[in-house]
Amino acid sequence: MNGEEGGGDEHARTNQTALIQRAETYFGKLEARCEEILVEVKESAQLLADADTDPYKRSYLQFKSAIIAQFTSIIQKGSDTFQKQIMPNANTLEMMKVSQLFNNWQSKVVGIMTHAFDGVMERDLEKEYAEMMDEYEAARDAFHCKQCGAKLQLAQFYFTATYLTCEFCQTQNTFDPGSKARMIEHIARPLAESRCKSEYEAYRTRKSEVGQREATADYDRYVRAMIAQMNNILPGMEEQHQHFYNRLMHDYNNLIVPW
Fold it and tell me: In which domain of life is the source organism classified (predicted)?
């Protein structure tokens, strides 16, 4: 039995040719570099996202793009080396082994790249919205007529600078909701979507079970929930949000391929 095991070990060493060993070393080094990049992401990504005060997170996204570019470059380098230097010099047995080695390596590093930023909260939309509303309420509370000094009431929500007439002296005043509040229009949909995750997951589950056509009612419930949230986030835009609902349902129904 021991002799058979020894023979198996010797057979394995014989098959572990110099080319295969070099390939293992090469792909191992590339994988190690990917692991180093992953550590950098885990240590820095959330800190950069939190520190980036730009509402579009452009500095953070530049960092993310640079990291993805590094991963992509490594994957491309490994693929080029495999195709141009390793495979042309491999015999039939080596081709099988290095192909498996390359496929395993590629699968692993693509997985590292794909999930590198999992768990990073790029934007805390609820926090951003709360800050926007704080600024809006401060602007609303400080809004007085520039002529007579009367406290002016807002009949509706204004997310852009608006001319309003003083009911006492008829002077036109400009209400400015603030730079942050003007961004509410741009986060209304993603914030509403984040508040309707349970409805969306219910729709996805139903769709996977019965198909898109039979899941139409579930999608409708999700979209209606999202529109209701958008109306809460951005009041006064109900008509525009209804048009948006109509368009989403129209597009969804047009995606259903007739039997």
Answer: Bacteria
Which residue's entry shows tokens 């009367």?
Answer: 150
Distance (Å, whole) CA 227 – CA 45: 32
- Find, among 117, 184, 171, the residue nearest to 145 by Cα: 171
Specify the length of the chain in residues: 259
Q: At 80, list the tokens.
A: 């080029």
Mean pLDDT computed over every residue of the chain: 89
Query: Which amino acid, one-letter code, is at 161?
Result: A
Q: Give the position of tokens 């368009």.
A: 247
Q: What is the pLDDT of residue 4?
A: 43
Residue 64's SS3 state is helix
Q: How far apart are CA 146 and CA 107, in angstroms?
A: 66
Look at residues 127, 124, 121, 129 and name the one whose alpha carbon lies nearest to residue 64: 121
Q: How far apart are CA 154 and CA 158, in angstroms?
A: 8
| 3-state SS class at 234 | coil
| pLDDT tens digits for range 207-231 | 999 999 999 999 999 999 999 999 9
Q: Where are the domains of the chain?
A: 2-115, 125-181, 195-255
